[in-house]
Write a structure and sequence with these properties.
Helix content: 40-55%
Largest sheet: 11 strands, mixed
Protein name: Putative ABC transport system permease protein
Domain MacB-like periplasmic core: 20-227
Number of helices: 27
Structural class: alpha+beta
Organism: Chitinophaga filiformis (Myxococcus filiformis)
Keywords: Cell membrane, Membrane, Transmembrane, Transmembrane helix
Domain ABC3 transporter permease C-terminal: 288-398, 673-776
Distance between the termini: 35 Å
Strand content: 15-25%
Amino acid sequence: MLRNYFNIAWRNLWKHRLFSLINIIGLGLAMAMCLLIIIQIQASFEKDSFHPYPDRTYRILTDVTNKEGKTFPLASTPLPLGPKLLQEQSGVEQMAQVIYGFGGSFSNRIESLSAWGLYVSPGYFQLFGFPLEKGKPAIEPYTVVLSHETAERFFGDADPIGRVLEHKDLGAFTVTGVFAPLKAKQSHLDADLVVSMATYPLLNPTVNQQDWLSYNAYTYVLLQKGIPSTRLDGMLEQVLADNKKNVDFRGIKELRFRRQLVSRISPDFQGLMNNPGVEPWFKVLVNIIMMLVIISLAIFNYTNLTLTRSLSRVREIGVRKVAGAARWQLVLQLLMESVLLAFCALIVGFVLLQVMKSFIYARWLTWEVQHPVGLWLAFIGFTLFTGLVAGITPARILSYGKPVTMLRGALDTMGVRKMGFRKALIVIQFVVSLVFMVVTVVMYSQFRYMATDNDNFNRKNILNIPLTDHNTYRLLSNEISKLSGVNSVGAASALLSEGAERVMITQNDRIKAGMEQLQAYKYAVDAAFIRNMRLNFVAGNNLPGNNADTLKGHFVVINEKAVQSLGLKDARSSIGQTIVLDSSEMIIAGVVKNFNFMRYEMPVTPLVLQYDPHAFKTLSLSVQDGTKQQLLVASLQGIWKRLYPYEPFIYSWYEQQMYDHYMENEDLKLFGVIIFIVFVIAALGMLGVVTHNTEKRAKEVGIRKVMGAGVGQIMRLLSWSFIKLILIAAVIGLPLGGFLGSLFLHIFTYRATPGITIYAACLGCLSLVGVLTIGIQTYRTAMSNPAITLRQE
């Protein structure tokens, strides 16, 4: 019986090839995105399931309850906890600790590349399933193990063992090993490299290694075989009881340690804080909702088109009913058609998924999973679900009619006879498409604003050169300033938008009154750097430029927010006032307008600009307009090689650097694919309905042409009802998309202001889709020969 249903379903799909093709393409496009989302969901549940001892390896969590009774669950623990468990508890076989925060720009003596990683204890290499491809673990101070991909980035095909990576602030690190590629395996401990834990106290000498109130370490333990997990609970309670005798847990009402199996770390269903690399449960939920929204659009298409062409199948179903077919048999036949079509769409979707994989390189996207058999079962199950859901409504409606009515070619079901349901589906499709488009364009405008914004500080015609030695920066600066095309040479501790130093500021009067100092950010700069950045002064002057270093170091430039935070009356009256920067007294030389010097989403914070040549790490060159960049770079490289013959010459154009930093367009690519998919689905749905409607009215069009109606009149007659649907979708979709886009923009303190052109462009795209889907088909019908259409039965 099922084979017979399959054959009939295949013949019906082949008979109505245009509608079948529209449905397969629409479902296939939606299926491609849904398959990608299914991969992300499965990967989040598979994360950290490959380690060698999954049933005995636990991560220790911390629950901190403050005086007000609010509990904060943390994925991290105090640093001394791990060694105490390993040394004092007999049931612990091995312990590993991880600390985040290591990384930056490393040089292999040829080029500098960014890499980020972890401090890890020796147990890391035994506890987790990260095998070494070559070399040995990083145990000694200033030793690192690279990931396979990082080793290729820095050293290509050369053997990296024994090579050195240099960081201008942290020092030189010797490569002792390389991890084997993880391939489809996923871990929350993803890192470009790992450095020995013995390095941590050397790079962080001010950190108290026995501080039980600082939760900056991640502790993992491996229990001995046969030790129940409840035994670990007792160990943690014993450690806490011992600490209460010796540690003053000030400000803490209650502290508790608890265990978590490493295989259950992801997704995070506990809402843990300090939990990097782990997807929260709501992200999985958002993925599921996104998948359902996209596939629903394609299901709407199938339902709409099936109901639209249902009248052509009414007599067929009526005959089946008269011949004795039960209603469940008719439903099964129609469901077989929708399921067969869904599996055809699965093939199309899988091909499109491979195409997406070839040009979208977002690092956070996962394209492979550890258990492909389970993935394909999920694909097939989802396809079967899609086919059944898509076919259930048409099957129910078409199998409901009375045989007598159906044999006359009519169907008295309200859902088919009236167009309201199908029109609502079309409107919903275009509303969703418009919302996606408007939100994505608003996001793009914000990213472009951050990438090209020159209102905060100047980034045009600025060339930056990292310094190797602050003691010789004056010699390099003097040589560069002699070059043709260089306006001025400034120096700074870091580029604006990068790592500013945290400092404490206050007024002398506040210190005497016992008031706390205020936190601020500081850049070490000279007067030329401030000029190059074109910062706007609202009061006072720039830093002194020609006096001795000792005199210049006593002056600072602050921003308006610092004036407000210090409690000063206004910018003008603050000039000449004395403030305390950490423990040193400084005189305010000038006040600049508030501008974004860190991330755009951060609130406006106090800023201090101070002359401190010992902290200079970057030269900032202001270059004249029209200067040939290649000739200038060649001249700079000659000066550099003469002064630093053994150091590589590194430079960057600030404008391009900022653009590359913010216009990381892989996420926008993905959003663009989503917009394309939902618009194509909506357009295909509209095309199918318009095609059926014009075919049904072909004789009417022929009669009107014979009576003298023109092509334009006929096109207006055929298309107006569909144009109204697009206008309704625009009225709903544009404001809704604008509202959701504004919610995104409010994440940022400094943000773009979307103009009317954004909405006009989105409306124009919608109109173009309408013209292509409605106009072409109605034009073909309007241009048809009435002699042919009127002769057809």
